[in-house]
């Protein structure tokens, strides 16, 4: 039995078996211990993490807007990861890195405690059928792991177009004593999903959870 087989999270979350797409993609030397952030980024700066960064539009826009911050994107799907890597490389960004690993795995195992300033979870899969709810990223164990990875006062910022999922997230957040809820009113770049949903006239729901 390998270490990956023995670890319960490794059994549930895929790890990239391929080499890096570009210097922007980071391959941890050990997938079963927290990363060395000094190895991940060449400088010390506030770290913000885009969970499931998709095609990378939001990640790249934020990195361009805030060159004084470091940005890490997580994306499991190869095609999306390639597009994100290409956009960051074309923009000449030195403050962006990409992990081709499931977001829950990154948060639970690869990020050292008290190192993240802000998480972005933008339009995650709502898994609308009730029997699929255990597949939703927002679960008590995920919220605990996110609060552990965040610095005190750090934030988990969430957006969704799904009203039922938003209510579900609100209940999960209310049950987690490690977070205090606040409104998210900060103006930020829109993801590709958000632009599409706004064009369709859908309501966008958002909230921000602050680590206590």
Q: DSSP strand (E) fraction?
A: 15-25%
CATH fold-level label: Rossmann fold
Level-2 CATH architecture: 3-Layer(aba) Sandwich
| Top-tier CATH class | Alpha Beta
Strand order of the largest sheet: 3-2-1-4-5-7-6
Main sheet summary: 7 strands, mixed
Rg of Cα set: 16 Å
Total count of strands: 7
Shape: globular
The percentage helix is: 25-40%
Order of helices and strands: HHHEHEHEHEHEHEHE
**How would you classify the helix and strand content by structural class?**
alpha/beta
CATH superfamily: Vaccinia Virus protein VP39
Arithmetic mean pLDDT: 89
Work out the helix count: 9
Beginning-to-end CA distance, first to last residue: 39 Å
Structural summary, described in words:
The protein is globular. The longest helix has 13 residues, at 78-90. It has a 7-stranded mixed beta sheet, sandwiched between helices. 34% of the residues lie in helices and 20% in strands. Strand 2 (70-74), helix 5 (78-90) and strand 3 (96-99) form a beta-alpha-beta unit. The chain has 9 helices and 7 strands, in the order H-H-H-E-H-E-H-E-H-E-H-E-H-E-H-E. With 212 residues, it is α/β, with parallel strands linked by helices. The protein has a single domain (3-211), classed as Vaccinia Virus protein VP39 (Rossmann fold, 3-Layer(aba) Sandwich), CATH 3.40.50.150.
């Amino acid at each position: 039995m390998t270490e990956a087989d023995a670890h319960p999270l490794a059994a549930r979350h895929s790890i990239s078996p391929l080499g890096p797409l570009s210097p922007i993609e980071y391959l941890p030397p050990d997938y079963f211990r927290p990363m060395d952030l000094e190895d991940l980024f060449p400088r010390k700066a506030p770290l913000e993490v885009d969970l499931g960064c998709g095609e990378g539009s939001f990640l790249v826009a934020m990195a361009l807007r805030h060159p004084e911050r470091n940005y890490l994107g997580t994306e499991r799907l190869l095609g999306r990861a390639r597009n994100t890597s290409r956009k960051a490389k074309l923009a000449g960004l030195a403050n962006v890195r990409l992990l081709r690993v499931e977001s829950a795995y990154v948060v639970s195992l690869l990020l050292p405690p008290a190192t993240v300033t802000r998480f972005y979870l933008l339009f995650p899969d709502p898994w609308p059928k009730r029997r699929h709810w255990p597949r939703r990223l927002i679960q008590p164990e995920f919220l605990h792991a996110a609060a552990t990875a965040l610095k005190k006062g750090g934030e988990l910022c969430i957006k969704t177009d799904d009203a039922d999922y938003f209510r579900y997230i609100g209940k999960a957040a209310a049950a987690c004593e490690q977070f205090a809820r606040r409104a998210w009113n900060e103006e930020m770049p829109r993801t590709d999903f958000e632009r599409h949903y706004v064009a369709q006239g859908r309501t966008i729901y958002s909230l921000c959870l602050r680590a206590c």
